[in-house]
Write a structure and sequence with these properties.
It is built from two helices and three strands; from the N terminus they run H-E-E-E-H. The protein is of the alpha+beta class. Strand 1 and strand 2 form a beta hairpin. It is elongated, with a radius of gyration of 24 Å. The structure holds zinc ion. The site of zinc ion (ZN) has 8 residues, from loops.
């Protein structure tokens, strides 16, 4: 009797922890882990209505998720964005150098007109 009770409680704990924290960043269609929120609205004191979009296959889904789930998603996004921002920054620097060179060249030949902006 006592053994059965312990086993039951352990099972319950396991299933609870997996069902309350779904992995929002994983696409349910293509399993890509790059899913990001396209819309994000507060739906209640501890609830969020989130629309998710997968950049890989274009699949989108939405749902109401708990604060805990959204916090976990947010932390994953933060990690992803940090990496992404770092890549973007490097890319921007490379592009900027090119753009600035073009801009300077245009200024020098007086080819820049107000309607270019
Ligand atoms: Zn996908």
């Amino acid at each position: 009797m006592a053994t059965q009770d312990t086993g039951h409680r352990m099972n319950q704990a396991t299933s609870t922890s997996t069902s309350t924290t779904p992995l929002l960043h994983v696409c349910e269609r293509c399993s890509s882990d790059l899913v990001n929120p396209t819309q994000w609205d507060q739906a209640g004191p501890e609830l969020w209505a989130v629309t998710l979009g997968c950049p890989n296959c274009g699949h989108s889904r939405g749902g109401i998720f708990s604060q805990e789930t959204v916090d976990a998603f947010d932390a994953i996004l933060d990690d992803g964005y940090t990496l992404l921002l770092e890549e973007l920054r490097q890319l921007t620097e490379a592009n900027m150098a090119e753009e600035i060179a073009c801009f300077v060249a245009a200024l020098q030949v007086d080819a820049l007109l107000p309607e270019d902006f």
